[in-house]
Amino acid sequence: MTASLQPVTTAPGSGYRHELYPYAGGDEFVQGALRFIQDALEGGEAVVVAVPQDKASMLRAEIREDEAVRYVDTSRVAHRPGRLIDAWQGWIRKHVEEGRPVRGIGESPWDQVRSPAEAAELHYHEWLLNKAFAEGPAWWLLCPYNVAHGGSGLRDMARCHPEMRKDGRTMPCGDYDPQASYAFVPLTRPCDPYEEFTYTGGDLPALRGKITACAEEHGLSGRRLRELHLAATEVATNSIRHGGGHGVLRTWSEDGRLVCEFRDGGYIEDPLSGRVRPNPRQIGGRGLWLVHQLADLVEIRSSPDEGTTVRLHTELPG
Amino acid sequence: MRAPRTLTTLDEVDTGDHVCQVLDRTEDVIDRSRAFVADGALHGDKVVIVGPALQGGSEFAQLVLDPARLDVSLLAAVRREAANAGREGFRSLRVLHHVRPGCPAKQTGELLRSELELEEFAADTGSLVVCAYSGAGWDPSTLEQIACVHPHHLGSRAASTAFRVYRAGQRGWAVDGIVDSDGAVLFGTVLCTLLARTATVRLLCHALEFFDAAGMSALADAARHLPDRKVILEGTNETVRLAWELSGFAVPDIPVVMAP
């Protein structure tokens, strides 16, 4: 990491601030988070805390929940990065509507991620937050990150945060380039053996049939299978309507998950597609939103040259 | 509840059926009518043939209702005939409707309205209605659209349809099959047609196999297409209800109720 540590002059409440807070150990986590909360309270700001349960307990022991400080339940979204932007929009909405400045503390359960794909998507989510809130309400999100995780994690996080907190001071993050496109981790190869099915208009029932056959082999049925059918249909419909009229489905299982991959020739220009809750009156634009809400994990890679690949991960029973 | 089914011959029809029959080019209207009249006599049914007046002296002349010459709507005319059949001691009314292509611009909407009225008529009165479409005179997509509001299909060229909407007694309308992006527009049109006739439409969805975002958008658009309307869906599974909420449609200005 090559962060150049210069003080940041942005005043609280004058735009979206997204700050990385690398810490070592529980004490440093509590110390940094508490200071952030206390600064907020002194300024009359509200704070939303969205951290794993064990971290929330440590903070609750120091500052209890009240009107100004709210600890939110992240269990429904913590492992589903595609749902987190909407979750944050919901968590801060009340304060924004009241016109009250708001801060957030958000930490993903990095030590409990279920797959490398989930970790990669959590990093991508951190990068997308800058785009999602660039035009939105002014608020300040602090993202604690335990340096003990090691590897490239801290560097990956630094690339997603315009600012970094060190020694109680906020500095610009040198690794963050607001103009750069996101450097995705390449998708893994499909696990053998995998099934392949080429689909076009009129093939949606057959596509669902292929998925059913594969899912039932792995004990997936009932509600979870219906949700996968719906998510898969939305992706395949996009292929047929916007991705050149056809696509290729591949299915396989890996590490206790069923993976359905869809490839087509289309291009998803807006990286926030499907991550923002649709307006009841908007026409269309619900397909990818439903996909993110129904699948356990969604990976999307799209470029004008190579088309679009969407992978839906569904956790298998048992 | 009436069970949808595909019939191989006219012998299998029963009272209360509303049958979509796609005729081959070789099938003769007079022959079809003659067989239909004979079956009616066999079962003690009063027979009515809806279609253009046949040439003078036709053996069916007194059985024919020509839509172009009716002083009331077709629905009112067959209702009157059904009432007469009861008074005259017949078991029920048996209607053979030779449907002719009309103005293409109005065709599908008018046909859907007419067929939904006949569907309700057949279900509510126990009359048998066979709608015969000459395959040569209709394009396949129109036939597919029309077929979706018939619970019973007849013939080697029976039109395939992803979903069907049909009368489920006084409880409302049953929907079965798949409503996805391929059929969403048609589903919306059927709903708008029903909502134009009644303020509250109750859809029984116990046999609805699949309902995607495009279908839900069509439902939402139809429900708010006219003021003071309401659509109640019964028998929806939890995935449909979840997707409806997630799609942002579960709001007061979209008058749709989703129930298990």
TrEMBL record, chain B:
Short name of any one Pfam family annotated for the protein: MEDS
State the superkingdom: Bacteria
Q: Where does the record place the MEDS domain?
A: 17-151
This protein is called: MEDS domain-containing protein
Give the organism the record lists.
Streptomyces chilikensis
